[in-house]
Write a structure and sequence with these properties.
Helix content: 40-55%
Number of strands: 8
Radius of gyration: 17 Å
Largest sheet: 6 strands, parallel
Strand content: 5-15%
CATH superfamily of the largest domain: HAD superfamily/HAD-like
Oligomer: single chain
Shape: globular
Distance between the termini: 10 Å
Strand order of the largest sheet: 5-4-1-6-7-8
Number of domains: 2
Order of helices and strands: EEHHHEHEHEHEHEHEH
Structural class: alpha/beta
CATH architecture of the largest domain: 3-Layer(aba) Sandwich
Length: 229
Amino acid sequence: MPRIILFDIDGTLIRSGGAGTRALERAMEIALELDAVTAGFSFAGMTDRLIFRRMLGQLGYEPSEALIDRVLDHYPEILREEIARAEGYRVNPGMQEGLQALAFSGRGDQAVGLGTGNVETGARIKLERADLNRHFPFGGFGCDAEDRGELLRVGAERGAARLGRSLEECSVLVVGDTPRDVSAAHAIGARCLAVATGGASRGELGDAGADHLFDSMAEAGALEILLGD
C-alpha cells in the first residue's frame, strides 16, 4: 500500500531552544505595541493561529482574523532572528538518520512531508538551520487549518496527490511528540509514531493511544517502524 509519512516539527524533529515561544511573544508585543507578553499556557500541539487567538483573548482583545494576521505579519522576521541565535537549537536523536534512511529507501510509493501547527513560513525557518527542508517537499500547516486533524488531512491529501493516488488508497503515519498529535492522527484514520522528545512523557503518550511509542527515534525498533510501518 502507498505510504504517506507526516512529521511534526517542534519537539519531534527539533527543539528550538525556546526560539519559537520567544518569537510568538515578541510578535504579539510589536503588533499590539505592548511592553511585555508572556503566554500562560503550553503551546504543545497547538497551531500558530490558535496560539495567537488564545493569547489575544488572554490579553483582553477580540481575536479577529485581521488582528491575528497582523501579528503573523511580524512573526517570520522575528522567528528568523530567534532561531539564528538560539543556543539550545538541536535536531532530536535519531531524526537525521531516520530522514536519510527514508530518502534512500528506494520506495517510489512513499511520500514524506510535514504535519505541523506552524504556518509554512515559520516551519521552513525552523528547519532551515539544520538543512532539513530538503526532506519535506509538501505538508499540512497551521495556515491550512487551525484544527490539527484538519491540517493533517490536508497534508495527507497533498501526499496522496504526489503519488497519483487517492487518500483512501494510502496508509498514513504521523510522527509526533504530543497527545494532540496522537488524537489528530486518529481523527483522520492514521496511525501515530510518538516520540517522547518534547514536553509529553512516554506515559502521557501511551495514555493518549500512540500506536508506536519510543523515547526517541534513536531507540531500537523506531527506525524499522518508520521504514516499514
